[in-house]
Amino acid sequence: MTQSTVLNRRGLLGAGLIAAPVLAAGRASAATPNAATAAKPAPPPQSGTIVSAAAFGIAPSADRDQTALLQAAIDQTTAKGQALALPAGTYVVGGLYLRPGSRLIGAPGLTVLKYSGAGLGIAADHAKGVRLEHIRIDGGHLPLDAQRSNALLTLSDCTDLTLDDVHVVGAGSNGINLVRCAGRITGSVIDGARDAGIFSLDADTAAGGLVIAATTVTDCRDNGILIWRTEKGHDGTRISDVAIARIGNRSGGSGAYGNGINVFRAADVTIANARITDCTYSAIRGNASGNIQMLGNHVVRIGEVALYAEFGFEGAMISNNIIEGAAAGIAVTNFNEGGRLAVVQGNLIRNLARREHEPVDKRGEGISVEADAVVSANVIEGAATAGIVIGWGPHLRDVVATGNLIRACGIGIAVSGDTAAGKVLLANNLITGAATGAIRSMDHAKAVGAELMATAAPKHVVLVGNVVG
Questions:
Q1: Alpha carbon of 10 to those of 15, 46, 78, 303, 348: distances in Å?
Q2: Does pLDDT of 17 surpass 90?
């Protein structure tokens, strides 16, 4: 937050940012009466100043709708290049429209725009340079008009966008919708959305793309953050230092809902240093999302695959993550759909439990890969089914697993024994406490034959320097 946005009394008076008249410093004295030094009213607010809503006769009130008054104030201040300051309190609104350059500034943690239940929440279209700072938008869990908007805050074709310390709570659908937008969401909170917390569709890459940083998303009933594109292509959204917790699966299905972060068709997306806990399905799920990076995230208590790259992706970097508790730690799969090319390195993964109640997809696997992948320097402990799973039937090509530590798992490394499978190099891995074999050949989910460390491995599997304890 810059100095110009500080809304304490001293900051506003010192910077001359209050629209109400103030007295000039050179008030005439009895000793030197002089018309030139007599008190004069301050000039009208100039471009770039911050104007209090009080100057428009607006005062906080939780009992009456102030949409029309606030809309007029937004329109007038925006037209003059001014920011509108909303003092602490609650303002009932139902359908505010932001213009290009609109800037609303509240008192941190104290200014609330409460949705009335009528019309839209807050919206902007083709509005460059919109700024919302220190504003709480409370949807009250009221339903939104699905034909007009499915988010409490809807922004379309808005570039140079800034949402800083914006709290969106109790949205009756999505919390924030961004369509073809570019800008930053920082230091914000989205809590209790009926659907997704943040939904970005077709981020405007030509205008710099989207950054989501130091933001918290909690208690959303279907998804946390969605980064989607209408067609596969470059997106480049950067998500960092976010906290996501308690994401549900209200709409059901087998993975479209219930994810902390879901990236769909969007390439070149980075998710780094996030803490993601208690998601019904995945912490991070990339679907047909090429060159996705999942770096340094901490993931706890996930219902299905914690970190997932699936279906038609090309390129995944999954490194230095900590995963504690899931049905599967990391899955890089669907070579049958074109999913290929990955590095899975330096991850700490533990406590992967089987879901015995599931008829087919029980998991309990630490890391699963299929094609054109390197799996190295990972530590895996307590994977009920297998520490590392390589290939699925014939869907296997060019995999290297080297330098991994695998402890107290069912099978240490399970590798497809299908005659149509491609080459696999297993080198310098340390496997201890594998209950049903250190390295086993698999027919899909079923182990076949003897322990490979004690017999001849299939021709496509090369074993070098592995140690079993």
A1: 8, 19, 24, 51, 50
A2: no
Tokens of 187: 């230091």
Burial class (CB in 10 A: 0-12, 13-18, 19+), 35: exposed
Q: How far is CA 113 from CA 32, 116, 152, 218, in A?
A: 50, 9, 11, 20
Question: What pLDDT does residue 430 have?
Answer: 98
Q: Does the predicted TM-score (pTM) go above 0.85? A: yes
Q: Say how far apart CA 76 and CA 275 lie, in whole Å.
A: 42
| Residue environment code for 119-132, b if the CB has 16+ CB neighbours within 10 A, otherwise e | bbbbbbeebbbbbb
Per-residue pLDDT reduced to its tens digit, 396-409? 999 999 999 999 99
pLDDT of residue 45 exceeding 60, the answer is no
Predicted local confidence at residue 23, as pLDDT: 20
**Cα-flanking dihedrals φ and ψ of residue 104, to 5°?**
-115, 130
Using only C-alpha atoms, the chain has a radius of gyration, in whole angstroms, of: 28
Quote the mean pLDDT of the chain: 89
